[in-house]
Write a structure and sequence with these properties.
three-stranded antiparallel beta sheet, mainly beta, rod-shaped, about 0% helix
Length: about 60
Amino acid sequence: MYLRPFDAGANIFAGYELPVGLFFQLNAQLGLLNINPDYEGEGTSEDKSSLKNTGFSLSAGYRF
């Protein structure tokens, strides 16, 4: 398996802070490129697959 050394992505971020300083954040990272490219001579036409990076995070905190 060969993986591409470069990836491009999009980031989605949302957050909310309460008046008392408590905050919540949601973050998502979405890979836009297939990092597992197909090469001629490898596998069959039924072996088509797509592999993309994805990540999520949830945060909570207090701002002084």
